[in-house]
Amino acid sequence: MSRPGFVLEVDDKTPPLLTMAGSDLRLERFGQGTRVVYPADAESSTAPVGLIDAALTAPTGSAPLAGRLAADTRLTIAVIDTDRPMPRAELEIRRTLVEQVLETAARAGVDDVEIVIATGLRQQWNAARVTEVLGDRVATSFLPDGLVTSHDVTAPDLVTIGEAGGLPIKLNRRVATSDLVVVVSNRADAGTRCPLSWGLTDVETVRRLGGPDASAAVEDEIEAVVRDAVDTYALVAVLGQPLLGRSLRFASKREWEWTLGDRLAFAGARQIVAAMPRQGAQYLHGSLRADYAVVDVLGGDFTQIHADSLAVWLAANAVEISGQSDVLVTPVWGAAIDEGDPVGSPLSAAHHALVTSAGAHVGKPVVRDGGVLIAFHPLRRRFSNRRQSAAADFFATVLPSTTDPAEIAATYEARAIDDEWYLDLYRKQFAEHPLRVFHEWYATARAAERFSDVIWVGGDRRSAALLGHRAATTYADALEIASNTVGQHPGITVLHGPGQAVGDVR
What is the mean pLDDT of residues 92-113? Predict the structure, then answer.
């Protein structure tokens, strides 16, 4: 077991602490009394063979997988990709899980096997991505015959499986017509949404799940219809915190435990980015991979395993905090928000700060209602020309007009999701579906309603203004701005990266 996370209370002996802002790594001094929440220690991965065998042979709420397979079974393996650990995993546990399922199916004599990637609104997988995640053996056996496909939320052959609120729900045809669907995923966060509903249904259903008028009742109704329509067996790997590669290993350590080598590595990383802002940042962060320890592998009934995996992840990663704070401070690291981009877009940065970081808690939020969020990120207007073209247009044309989710949905959403250019990029060029940026903004705007101010340290002022937020040059300036709301002596909690620090507020 790794060392659990803990809360450090800053005193006069506390050294400057690492913060991350886009591609920039810096040491920041925090005032005495500030609480800094450190996640559990990151550890290197070990072979999870025993855990996988137990998940397959002694599952929860289900017969063993081998007992549910027969020679004439129409089997589909649904690989969940709606949520993924960031930075990307160096060793993909989903590959091992899929291989073990295929070996179990082969021993049962199953011939009709296909793999469906549950991408939802994310990019569909090309052959290189299939090979990277699932390995050469699976790719060479399944790709030539078209037996690995990515779900398309706009596909014309989706199957209607029922209704929710009087509206039809459509599901991936292969999944809907299978005798058994083995759902393979990993859990690296505290998310609660159903990966089948978000990853394998039609665009109208996903639109209802994530729209500005989305409700827990509608989501529960849709999830119930999907789960009743599909006979499933879940196989979930619960992951630990990211252990970064050698050049950035210091970021996975506590500052007072840095060795001389760690200090030299930090200084070198700073100098590389300062000397070559674009090239250096891309070299250090652009194609970064991290190692994730496998905390546990759970198998069995989908509903039970979805809940159990969350409980296991929280048990390994939640940190007990005494009482709420007035100010929450969070780093926003590019390598943790946008794949291949060392800085990250302002929309992704806002979503990460408000939804992923501030929204990660057990029970009560870490910061009180009406408190202030301070985030570190430059908010430069950077978007991938192909993958995030809809996001770039959203930032440039929609937000200058309005930030209100209901008005955006009524005025701009339908036009964007019917745009043939965006849809062509989604279907043929492996871009995100245009609806994804709308859903991320709705979630970001909802999360921001709890705060009296959102302040970006080092952020571009025009970008911050478009988001409806404020910018400050330094952390001290941000506290001065916040003092108008929370006073001169607020209670401050800092979330320490690069992993996800989840507060269990008591």
Answer: 97
Torsion region of 319: left, alpha or beta (phi above 0 gives left; psi -120 to 50 gives alpha): beta
Do 380 and 406 have their domain in common? yes
**What domain count does the chain have?**
2
The closest alpha carbon to 83, from 209, 201, 224, 194, belongs to 194
Residue 433 in contact with residue 198, Cβ under 8 Å?
A: no
Give the Cα-Cα-Cα angle 138, 96, 135 (nearest 5 degrees). Answer: 35
Place of tokens 């979805």: 306
Query: d(Cα 350, Cα 409) in Å, to the nearest integer?
Result: 19
Give 386's contacts (C-beta < 8 A, 6+ positions apart): 425, 429, 430, 431
pTM for the structure as a whole: 0.95
179 and 134 belong to one structural domain: yes
| Residue 483: domain span | 6-33+322-505
Q: Is the pLDDT score of 1 beyond 80?
A: no
Contact 416, 434 (CB under 8 A): yes
Among residues 196, 214, 239, the one where a domain terminates is 239
Q: Alpha helices of 77-215 — where are they, by DSSP H?
A: 93-107, 127-142, 173-176, 195-200, 203-210
